[in-house]
Amino acid sequence: MAKVKTKFVCQNCGYESPKWMGRCPGCGQWNTLAEELSETGRSGRWADRVPDGGRAVKAVPIHAVEAPEESRILTDSKEFNRVLGGGIVNGSLVLIGGDPGIGKSTLLLQVSHQLAEQGKKVLYVSGEESVQQTKLRAERLSIRSDQLFVYAETNLADIDAAIRQLKPDFAVIDSIQTVYHPDVASAPGSVSQVRECTGELMRMAKTYGIPVFIVGHVTKEGAIAGPKILEHMVDTVLYFEGERHHTFRILRAVKNRFGSTNEIGIFEMRDTGLEEVENPSELFLEERSSGASGSTVVVSMEGTRPILVEIQALITPTVFGYPRRMATGIDQNRVSLLMAVLEKRAGLLLQNQDAYLKVTGGVKLDEPAIDLAIAVSIVSSFRDRPTGRKDCFIGEVGLTGEVRRVSRIDQRISEAAKLGFERIFLPKNNLGKISAPDGVQLIGVSTINETLSLVFS
């Protein structure tokens, strides 16, 4: 007979302890251990196994394994298909996380409608809203389909029964933190519940061969709430990013077993729902000021897509004893590093200057190829001299002031030429076999000093 006892489980990392502690030894977070019930004394699942019983298991050479090409289902949203790696794979489990009110439910409801319009049967399980509330959201988005079924339930056993009875082609669970497993003695949203429910949903996706989308809440640090194993269990992890006070939303893939990572899709939130942005580069640059100092344009690669974004810098004398360094959309440590390089290698006195940098449009850039644009924008604001409106900057800056080569230079140049840029400053080592498009001048630079002399000559 199973004995029931209590244990304390960290709601952040899943660390288990027989007694309560103020600080979790696993992740170091405070006040994250919660009491949960556990059963002991059960016979293990291998205890009753008969030796040499059941079917024989045979390992096969890898070259003898037949790997059929997975079939993908395309939605009407090209941006959504791109992030997933070319479409939805049958039997996949996709996790979508994001801040509250960012548009996760709206996105999945629109995707469900698009699939239902193709004749696919879709089951939308809502654990946070009633059927009537989901209906109101659907009416606002002009969603009416006979193939889209709505079910308000949080019991995973009832959800499994509904899937077996309805036999849908797709299933959406909104959200994983509200669903509970009836055999797990803990509250919904706890580490044990999230882990067990995700495991059962994975079993459903693989057994029934249907794609399952689950919504996950995020913590105040921006990570998906629950144990980290949640992201390891699913096939694809998507983050829905963006400022709540701005209309643009970015869907970013951070894990994808069926495609490349770091792909992004850009949407615009409107009264009628989310609409995809086909040309984000033109959209990000349409409000760029003419003749303003501290403004540069860089071509950044987001997965396989080149995007032109504007980097703005404001350098002002500090009124405090310690200068401030603030950045939005860029790593603040990278800004401090580049300012140190400019002070040491270019002879600029920046130690008594406040620096404020921003990437317009709410995009977050983290690749090394944006270093040159950041450095030029800082110098432009410091000297109060604008750069050319048709100038574009690509390159990584090293600690010795050299400009290093970057990847996929052909795609970057093509995207810049498409939007009418006439001069592109890029690393000299990238000038190998590339040819300049008509009306575009490629200027190779090897150091930051050489770049500044050509830009501000």
Describe what this molecule looks like in 3D.
The chain is an alpha/beta fold and 457 residues long. Helix content is 25%, strand content 27%. The protein has a 9-stranded mixed beta sheet with strand order 8-7-9-10-6-11-12-13-14, with helices on both faces. The chain has a 4-stranded mixed beta sheet with strand order 15-16-18-17. The model is unreliable at 43-47 (pLDDT under 50).
Record the SSE blueprint.
Elements: E1 3-10, E2 16-17, E3 33-40, E4 72-73, H1 78-83, E5 88-89, E6 93-98, H2 104-117, E7 122-126, H3 131-140, E8 148-152, H4 156-166, E9 170-174, H5 191-208, E10 212-216, H6 229-233, E11 236-241, E12 248-256, E13 264-270, E14 273-276, H7 280-285, E15 295-302, E16 305-317, E17 325-328, H8 332-345, E18 353-359, H9 371-383, E19 391-393, E20 396-397, E21 403-404, H10 409-418, E22 423-427, E23 441-445, H11 448-455
Parallel strand pairs: 6-10, 6-11, 7-8, 7-9, 9-10, 17-18, 19-22, 22-23
Antiparallel strand pairs: 1-2, 1-3, 4-5, 11-12, 12-13, 13-14, 15-16, 16-18, 20-21
Global structural class: alpha/beta
The end-to-end distance, rounded to whole angstroms, is: 85 Å
Mean pLDDT across all amino acids = 87
CATH topology of the largest domain: Rossmann fold
Counting H and I runs of at least 4 residues, what is the number of helices?
Answer: 11
Question: What portion of the residues fall into strands of 2 or more residues?
Answer: 25-35%
Main-sheet strand order equals 8-7-9-10-6-11-12-13-14
The Cα radius of gyration reads 26 Å
What's the story with the biggest beta sheet?
Answer: 9 strands, mixed
Q: What is the count of β-strands?
A: 23
Percent helix: 25-40%
CATH class wording of the largest domain: Alpha Beta
Work out the count of structural domains.
3
Please name the CATH architecture of the largest domain.
3-Layer(aba) Sandwich
Overall body shape: globular
Which spans have pLDDT < 50 for at least 5 consecutive residues? 43-47
* CATH homologous superfamily classification of the largest domain: P-loop containing nucleotide triphosphate hydrolases
